[in-house]
Amino acid sequence: MPVSKPDSALLILGHGSTENPDSSQPSWDHADVIERSGQFGSVHCAFWKEEPSFRQIWSKIEESEIYIVPNFISEGYFTRQVLPRELEIEGHTTIREGRTIHYCDPVGIHPAMTGLLIKRAKEIINASVKLEDTTLIIVGHGTNLNKKSTEAITDQVEAIKASGEGFARVLDAYMEEPPFIADWQTLTDSPNVVVVPFFIADALHSYQDIPVLLGIETEPTAAASQRDIFRQNPHHFGDRSLYYSSAIGTDPALAEVIVDQVAYFDEHYRS
Fold this sequence. Notes:
By secondary structure, the protein is an alpha/beta fold. The protein contains seven helices and ten strands. β4 and β5 form a beta hairpin.
């Protein structure tokens, strides 16, 4: 949904990483697309583990009204506790030092994510592969810090099941809690399996850790930008074929989702 806010700034928040150069790239890419659209007075990024940090970014923003969109998958520990604490904001709107700061929902809970996951899964399988012979697994990190972190994935699984797309099965799996993605061969019985990481970036987890858990790699490899693992599909395990996708957050359409979260905020949270 297009918005027109030439007097407002958009601030996209990301996790970032001190170890992987690809972690922050999707946020910068989406920010560039949105900035070129001219819908906001300015567009900025800030990160938990990179610069500019959350606390450094305020001096770079001139506008008095700021919309913050967390470029995070789930409404969990980071979006509910860490980000508000570091940004020194409370609730949906904070007024501080002459600025009005609106805190929007994270991108991962937007309804459009369902369509993006389905599109990504279909893009990476061969044209001859039948969906009724294919299991789709949406994989996440998993954590005991906040149950909301897995709800985003289970919600997507149920939405895809209800879509009538025709996959043999649609499952959720995790790196650090059951059902474990490392058990994909026992969790599924279809000849084809498609795994789509429900992550923002092709960083340490989706590019280095999960391929080892899947059995695609024997040990963690170089960063995503340095290799072509996503172009090597399918991976064969006996008479079964495994297709592994890049992280859903790298989809160019996520720029529209970020803007939509601003429109949603104005419609549902703004008094």
